[in-house]
Request: fold
Amino acid sequence: MTVSDRMRRQWNERARENAYYWVVSGQEKWTKEEYYREGEKDIARLVVPYLKSYGLSPEHTKTLSALDIGCGTGRLVRALAGIFGSVTGIDISEEMIRRAKEENRSIMNAHFLLASGTGPLPVHDHSIDFCFSYMVFQHIPSKEVIRKYFCELLRVLKPEGLAKIQVRGAPGDPPGRVVWFKGFASFYLALTLWRGWLPLPWLRPYDTVYGACFTDAELKSTLMEVGFRQVETFRENDRYLWATVRSPAPDHA
Reply:
């Protein structure tokens, strides 16, 4: 079974089981209103200040297009649609896309498309002004697949387009506090302190919950190798590692 087949099958199962929980695991049972309100809070916290830092006014962003990679049921797309002129959400799960279309059918500037998971995104070249991805790449069990997404991100962004993306910045589910780790293509190796003091080497393959992990330097170098030139990384906490990028200007493409 390929990586994309495994991701699609497991995320379809999770969507049928409890879609809201698997998108946002802050609580097991969400009402629809609570769930989408949390999306509005996340966009207000993570996207709006970023856009303002580039001097983009609300009037200007209403003329721009946005892309949400790993949109799930459209939690963030709904919030982004109140800011941008048009928003496209993509996801590997047919069930998530079905739910997204059903629950957001009244939002005329929101569109939802199924992605292959490892192939080209279903988005035209240089057609997106801003791309966002939150709590998505952290579940992808292959660094090569994530790198392909980064290449696609560069392809679909307009010249000087902006993106803010989050990856896993620490190994998933280690047996103790991690004092060192190395993330390889499909697994990680870590040194942990078991029971708070006993050094323990730990090797674990990535899966579709605890996906590939990056150091700050590795994430930045990967994005620059892909072709981005303005790359900044920062940590929200040990788990959430962020990157903001800007695609090259036309004469540097």
User: Anything to note?
Assistant: Residues 73 and 138 are 18 Å apart (CA to CA). The chain has two domains: 3-19+30-169+214-252, 171-208. Residues 3-23 form the longest helix (21 residues). The mean pLDDT is 96.
